[in-house]
Write a structure and sequence with these properties.
With 203 residues, the chain is mainly α. The chain has 2 domains: 96 residues, Rna Polymerase Sigma Factor, Chain: A, CATH 1.10.1740; 86 residues, Winged helix-like DNA-binding domain superfamily/Winged helix DNA-binding domain (Arc Repressor Mutant, subunit A, Orthogonal Bundle), CATH 1.10.10. The chain is 71% helix and 0% strand. It has 8 helices and no strands. The longest helix has 36 residues.
């Protein structure tokens, strides 16, 4: 006996529109984490990202019947709604919150982590934080392609569908975004190399 395949996003959406709360919960569980990560990568604020995630599914409940499968996937539809909400909130509130300043940043209690080499762990954390800050500092049109293609690992076609632009536009923006990130991160790498060299001289 073969196992029954999981329902598709479209099937879950149809059931949701028919009043099936379990279908809505299943769709939320499947897609909310990615929406939250995208919103967080765009704004740096966990509270704002959480608000956006909730707003996206409220829109889905109200306007899900307007979804047209011939124009794209449910996932792309949800991510497009998330993008619009993030940009609207950022333009209205005009602020960014560094992830390191958010008290909820620690997703794993420090007491439950095993640190084999504290210096290596610190260096890794600083590198991740540098990348996060550099991504947040990018102009919106570049930040969103990095968030979608590099951080969410979506294809150019999927990103183009969400952004409502040509695949070639996604490619060119991503190329420019990566160049900007390289420029932003290079000075820090040079400083780190100089510090290491200096430390060796005094060793």
């Amino acid at each position: 006996m073969t196992a029954k395949p999981d329902p598709s996003d479209s099937e879950l959406l149809q059931s949701t529109m028919a009043g099936d709360e379990e279908a809505l919960a299943a769709l939320y569980q499947r897609r909310a984490p990615g929406i939250f990560r995208f919103a967080l990568q765009m704004c740096g604020s966990r509270s704002l990202a959480d608000d956006v995630t909730q707003e996206v599914f409220m829109v889905l409940i109200r306007e899900g019947h307007m979804f047209d499968a011939t124009r794209g996937s449910v996932s792309s539809f949800l991510m497009g709604v998330a993008r619009n909400h993030v940009l609207r909130r950022l333009r209205r509130e005009r602020f960014y919150v560094s992830i390191e300043e958010d008290p909820q940043n620690e997703t794993t209690p420090a007491t439950s982590r095993t640190i084999e080499n504290p210096l290596d762990d610190l260096s890794r954390a600083e590198t991740i934080e540098s990348v996060r800050k550099s991504v947040l500092a990018l102009p919106e049109r570049y930040r969103e392609v990095v968030a979608l293609c590099d951080l969410q690992e979506m294809s150019y076609a999927e990103a183009a569908e969400i952004l409502g632009c040509a695949v070639g536009t996604v490619r060119s923006r991503l190329h420019r975004a990566r160049a900007l990130l390289t420029e932003k991160l290079r000075p820090e790498k040079n400083e780190e190399a100089a510090e290491v060299k200096s430390a060796r001289c005094f060793a």
